[in-house]
Amino acid sequence: MENAKLFKWRHFEAEIILLCVRWYLRYALSYRDLEEMMRERGLSIDHTTIFRWVQHYAPELEKRCRPHLKAWNDSWKVDETYIKVKKV
User: Fold this and answer.
1) Rounded distance between C-alpha atoms, residue 86 and residue 18, angstroms
2) CA 66 – CA 59 distance, rounded (Å)
């Protein structure tokens, strides 16, 4: 997201916004957890602000990351082997 237009008129730097959005999407953190983590780092960010960032930037992150993800599907195959066992 090098495009500066995405972060124009934002109060916080792009790195902080992206950090909060990525942590929210990647880990099982709540908005209030992120608010507390940012407060520990000396930043005063409200949880509703983080919510708005996620709503705004998550689709853009998904769009830009999708081409780099490994393609997969949920089907799989097993080779079958037939073994005949003699009865005694």
Assistant:
1) 65
2) 10
